[in-house]
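**Backbone description:**
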Amino acid sequence: WQRFQNICGDVENQREQLEAESESNKNRILERISDARFAAGSAFDADGFMEIRERLNEIMAMLKDATLIKPHRDECWDAYRQENESLQKKREKKQFDDYNDLGADIAIIKETLVTALMGVTLSIIEFATLEYDAMFEPKGDPHKALQLIRDAQQKLRSAFLTKDQRQELRERLQGLWDQAIAEIEERKKAREQKHENWVSRQEERLEK
């Protein structure tokens, strides 16, 4: 009987030691999660999100290696999952906001290009045959659109976006860039042709 009691006592001591170790590990992990939650409050860009992700990865490793009884492990996993989901939602919101912000910039660029194109009320051929007079110059400025595109491309480099979002916005900006360049080239050709026509008329008048 005494031997049985000794065995029971040893088992109880081991159980108490296990619970104490588990309690200590649980508190240490929950403290790390709390620190990560506090740091996430000031994470607003890719670097900040990466720092929080690294913290959570370290916590994940602790969870896998630490001695924890089931109630303590469940409590830690619940806290970890909650913080992990919170980080994911914050990342997605930042991506959504940056995508929409650049989308608004692209809308302004489109409006600027439309204004430039609508300013040309005559066809290129008609424009080239007019007398060389500044009053017939196109009203809009495609160069302004180019500058806006450069600004948006610079913002795109630092924006927090998914790969697909970044590719889509890059292609949209490139399309607008090509439009602006084409308009600038067309105007240049029209001005050169108009000037040549004007010189030709002046020479004809002098010959008469």
In short: The helical segments are 2-40, 46-65, 70-118, 124-129, 142-158, 163-207.
